[in-house]
Every structure is written in C-alpha cells, then in structure tokens.
Amino acid sequence: MERIDVSILGRDYSLACSPEQKDALLAAVRHVDQRMLGVKGSGKVSSNERIAVMAAIQIAVELLSMRAPDGPLGEVALGDFKRRIDDMNAALDEVSIASVQQR
User: Fold this and answer.
1) Separation in Å, CA 87 to CA 47, 52, 66
2) Is the pLDDT reported for residue 84 higher than 90?
3) In angstroms, what CA-CA distances link 83 with 4, 17, 78, 79, 80?
4) Global confidence as pTM
5) What are the distances in angstroms from CA 68 to CA 9, 36, 72, 82, 85?
6) Is the separation of the CB atoms in 3 and 15 below 8 Å?
C-alpha cells in the first residue's frame, strides 16, 4: 500500500491505496473536491458536512444516470439497471415465498 496526501475543500487527508489505483484515486479526489467547491460556491450551503452530503448526492445522480457506451444497452442508464435488478430480485422473492407457502 502507498500513502498519498490529498486536499479536499482545504482539508488535508492521508489515504492509502495500491500503486495501480493511485491515478484513479487522485482523479476521484479531484472530482469530489470540484463538486464540493461548486456546492460551497453556490452560497446556499455553509457547513462542510452539508456540502459533502450535497456533493455526494450530485455525484450519485451523475453515476446513476450514466449510460453504457455504444451497444445494445447504450440507452439504459446504470440506475435503470439497478432498478431492474432490484425488481427481478423482488419478483423472485415473491415466487419463492409463494412456493414455500403452498407446501
């Protein structure tokens, strides 16, 4: 493991990661810092905790609306995949419970 020092919203953090993950981690830190600075710059949120939560929500929305690259599933967002899988799991659970109750 390698230790790297980063700054997010003016606060310093020491993080551990494998050497092959370092570039991805630094890119993620930059992304989070930019989002948090954007939230802070809006002037609507003042505490660092609330800034972090709002930035996390923005990043989650961005992630869940991200679409697959070209291909047969290119029009489906990641969040849609998750919802469909959750719906399938719920349907399987219902079928499983119904079959147990019939025995």
Assistant:
1) 37, 30, 20
2) no
3) 36, 31, 9, 6, 5
4) 0.67
5) 31, 26, 9, 13, 16
6) yes
